[in-house]
Structure formats: C-alpha cells, structure tokens
Amino acid sequence: MIKPFNYTYESFPEDIESPVGMKTLCTDRDEWAPLYEHDVEYIERDGTKLHLQVLKPSCWDKKLKCPCVVYIQGSAFMKQNTYFSLPYLVILAKKGYADIRVEYRPSDVAAFPAQVIDTKTAIRYIRKNAEFYNVDPDNIFVFGDSSGGHTALMVGLTSGISWLDSDDYGEYSDDVNAVIDFYGPTDITKMNDCPSIQDHTGPDSPEGKLIGGKNVLENLEEARKTNPITYISEQKDIPPILIMHGSKDRLVPFNQSVLLYQALLDAGKQVEFYKLKGADHGGPQFWTDEIIDILDDFIKKNIK
User: Fold this and answer.
1) pLDDT at position 88 over 90
2) How far, in Å, CA of 7 to CA of 12, rounded?
3) What is the Cβ-side half-sphere exposure of residue 213, based on CA atoms within 13 angstroms?
4) What is the pLDDT of residue 182?
C-alpha cells in the first residue's frame, strides 16, 4: 500500500500506464481560463446588499497580476441583471484580464449619485482584495453599457470629488486607467431632441427616476450634475476614453455620444469614437472579434 504524501505538482509521479486504444494528448495550461465567483458582496447600503460577479484568470502562476476591467451592466438605472452578458466578458477575460461586474443601487432605491458612489466603492474594494483576485491594482479600467456607460464615465471623470464618493475602503484609490463607454447617455436634457422610442424627460422616465422621480426639464441643475460633460475641462486630467455607439440606437440617441466626443476634443483630451453602422441599442454587433480586438488594443496601450 502506498502511503499518502504531501506531493507538490512537480514531485507527483507521472502515470505511465498505456492501455491499448487509449489516446494521449499533450496540452499546455491555459493561464487565462477564467474562474467564476458569483455574488461576492462588497457593501450593503439602504438595506440592499450589493454584489460583484468575478471572472478572474486561473493564473497557475499565482504571482501573476492581471489588469482588471470593472464592468457596469446597463439597466436604465433600475435593477441590473448582472449575469446578462457574462458570456461576452469571458471572451475578454481570455485576453488576460480579470473582469468584475458591479451591481449598483437601482434608482427606485437611491437616486443619483448612488450608482457612481457604489461603483467607486467597488473599485476600492477590488483594490483592497487585489491579491485574492489576481488583480494588478495599478491597472484598473472601467467599462459600461447604456446607463452603465454613463456610470463608467462619471467614475472616470469625477475622481476626487467628495460628494460623489464615500469613505468606505477610503484608504484605497478609485482612479482608473481609462474608460470604455458603450452608448451611454450624457446630457439627459437633450435626449428628447432626437428620435427615440421612449420619453426621456418625464418623472417616470429612466432619466426622471435617476434624479428622484422628477421632470428633467424642470430640474435643470440636478440634471446638469448627472452630465459627464459637466466635469470636463482643459485644466483637469482625465483618463482616456473609448466610445462606441450604434447608428440606429432607438433608446439612447447617437447624438449623446457626439456631444461627449466633441466636449472631449474641445478640451484636448484623449478619446476614440466608433459609430457602429446599423447597430441598435447593444446586441451582438458590439461583441464581434473586431470589436474585442479594438477593446484589447485600447486597454493594452493604457496599461501602466
């Protein structure tokens, strides 16, 4: 009888049995095959437990630290389905990134800026636990679609503004290397100026609910505070931004991204802007091999 030993991988004996008909394959380890940890609680606010969905590279070499993409799922600022596009993020994770999806408080629980505050808190939490998640704390990116794109922009553009932050995990930074915005709203006072299949200014609209169930056009100062463009200036350092938006978006008008792009250009900031011809509000057109390569290139050139 063989006694049990505390083998390491290197010291464990290779099996040499070779029965007739058996086939042997020699394969390399996939360092980037993602491991999934679901519903990791990072904070509780307003009686709501907020969670992360974590895709981290398996990293057989545990000393290897990976850039991290913090993703915010769009939801019209309401309760998110944070599992919705996990398969797409697996593709990005296979490029060598930790991908972590953030749950924020929905607008019917907490109005703006709750979503921004929650995401910044999540980024701080990730930095606090960077070693456990195989994350390089110096290389964190924020990425969102639709209302998540809006939140990603706000996070990237408002670092250091106290009323848009909290003290939770305050010893860690909320800074990000760069921002990826998929068809996020920007100036909610102008969304009804363009064709759309829904109202964007009434108290019951997604944008009205964002500011507490108020008419957007009757509360211009509150609306202004939600506008990422408000926080752009020539004097302020902001991270590079990548924008993608469909030319036939029926929910968030394409013009919303044009307004943001022009403001960034006018202020002399780094920005890339792609119009996806014929694309609606999200969908598979945003996750083709070509788009993944663009995302990968953008992230890589902004890694410290």
Assistant:
1) no
2) 6
3) 4
4) 98
